[in-house]
Amino acid sequence: MHLLLLPMEQLLHYCWKHRLFPHSQLFTTDGEEVEVIDTGLHNHHAGPDFFNAKVRIGGTLWVGNIEIHDKASDWYTHGHEGDAAYDNVVLHVCKLADRATRTSDGRLLPQLVIQVPEHVQTNYRQLLATDRYPPCYRIIPQLPSLTVHSWMSALQVERLERKTRDIEKRVALCDGSWERAYFVTLARNYGFGVNGDTFEQWALSIPAGTIVHHRDNLFQVEAFFLGQAGLLDIDAIPPRYQQAAVSEGYFTRLRQEYTFLAHKFGTTPLPHSRWKFLRMRPQNFPHIRIAQMARLYHEQRTTLRQLVECTTVADARTMLHTSVTEYWQTHYTFGSPSATNNKQMSPFSINLLLINTVVPILFAYGRHTGNDGLCDRAFTFLEQLRAEENNITRMWQDCGLKVNNAGDSQALIQLKNEYCNRRDCLRCRIGYEYMKQQ
């Protein structure tokens, strides 16, 4: 399989996979009749392009692999004549048979010439040339509901599997601890995109088994959390607020407590410059989000055990619902008072945490432990949660696709990010419907 294919070779793969070629009157370059019974399983890795195909050539049934090239001579360009992995190819498919081809053991391969239908080439050019997103917008209202439903379901699984891989990487970073990986994942999503990477690094900087011994003291938890974030550095406060922050006393008390804890645990804070504040709503400032996480941690509502015990969306919402300590009810940053506000985690924010943390962790941990019930619960939660509202979901709604729940919105985000953005229409089921139009 050649991962960097020319457009025409991509289309040849596509036409073979979806049988977009004549089903009769097929002959090898040697004049033997060819019947394609099964095109085989598309291989996306190294080796022949299609595995376990079934073809009848000159009355003999062959079961083996298929290799596809734009020109037959590409067999030699890619070095297949010396690669034993290609010895079980039973048919070489190409657009131009400019040379006979042999395997490494000297066997002469039968070759079949097929052409990409004109309407497929035209439709493909249209998809690549259209500036409007998505380029297939014209046919979306005509799609059968079964086609849409099955594709959305597959995309949901794809997105959860991608998030599972991300979680598994965090588990590895956390020395195999799913408990800590859950905390890191939750922290990352507390960044709500803008500060996600920094929140993840912050969570990873908190040593396992240290602050847990001070969990019953909310002040110490908050001091350590804010200190590790670098937010207790006086230079993290704008100069015009520094004097007020010191005179209020709370900043100084937190800083003194963090100095003690950091010395005790031997930790180093993150540079405060990593945090972003520009064009951010104050309720998303890292001070507020970290204070909310401190309360969750203090109340032992960041444990994997408690997450697994959430059998309903309502349970999970209750688990994640939190607010800030007294100081932060009247501040968004140190030294700058704001209107009194309990600054609870909003229903909108909790919905995003459920979609991006609770659901993926349930699915990934279910896969890890072989607990299908947790995986099923993840999908049930997606069906029950409100759909995300963003530019991507609005784009698909404008094209005629309904977004009924979080499962739909996650599927459409996957579709946009992994298919549309890459112009990978040949792997998309909607792209297939577009391509086969005549």
Q: Can you give a write-up of this model?
A:
47% of the residues lie in helices and 11% in strands. The protein contains 17 helices and 9 strands. The chain has helices at 7-17, 74-77, 118-129, 145-173, 178-190, 196-204, 218-228, 239-248, 250-265, 286-298, 304-308, 313-320, 347-369, 372-384, 391-399, 406-420, 429-435, and strands spanning 26-27, 33-38, 41-42, 50-57, 60-71, 89-96, 111-113, 331-333, 336-337. The strands form 2 sheets. Strands 1, 2, 3, 4, 5, 6 and 7 form a 7-stranded mixed beta sheet that branches. A hairpin with a 2-residue loop joins strand 8 and strand 9 (336-337).
Q: Compute the gyration radius: what is it?
A: 29 Å
| Shape descriptor | elongated
Mean pLDDT: 93
Uncertain regions spanning at least 5 consecutive residues: 1-6
The count of DSSP E runs of length 2 or more, i.e. the number of strands, is: 9
Task: Estimate percent helicity.
Answer: 40-55%
Strand content: 5-15%
Task: List the total number of helices.
Answer: 17
| SSE class | alpha+beta
From the N-terminal CA to the C-terminal CA, the straight-line distance is 29 Å
What quaternary form is this?
single chain
Secondary-structure element sequence?
Answer: HEEEEEHEEHHHHHHHHHHEEHHHHH
SSE blueprint:
Layout: H1 7-17, E1 26-27, E2 33-38, E3 41-42, E4 50-57, E5 60-71, H2 74-77, E6 89-96, E7 111-113, H3 118-129, H4 145-173, H5 178-190, H6 196-204, H7 218-228, H8 239-248, H9 250-265, H10 286-298, H11 304-308, H12 313-320, E8 331-333, E9 336-337, H13 347-369, H14 372-384, H15 391-399, H16 406-420, H17 429-435
Parallel strand pairs: 5-6, 6-7
Antiparallel strand pairs: 1-2, 2-4, 3-4, 4-5, 8-9
Helix pairs in contact: 4-5, 4-13, 4-16, 5-6, 5-13, 7-9, 7-10, 12-13, 13-14
